[in-house]
Specification:
Elements (H helix, E strand, L loop, with lengths): L1 H21 L2 H7 L3 H9 L1
Helix pairs in contact: 1-3, 2-3
Length: about 45
């Protein structure tokens, strides 16, 4: 499982970065969409 997460992590981060730039990031934070990654992107 950890190996899978390490492979997916950059993809998930870029996906959230795309969402953050194309849509309203606080909306996704409120929805709790993948909280940890959303929070990290929000802190950048």
């Amino acid at each position: 499982m950890e190996k899978v997460l390490k492979i997916l992590n950059p993809t998930i981060n870029s996906f959230h970065a795309f969402i953050g730039t194309s849509m309203n990031l606080p909306y996704f934070c409120k929805k709790g969409l993948n909280n940890e990654f959303t929070y990290r992107i929000g802190k950048l």
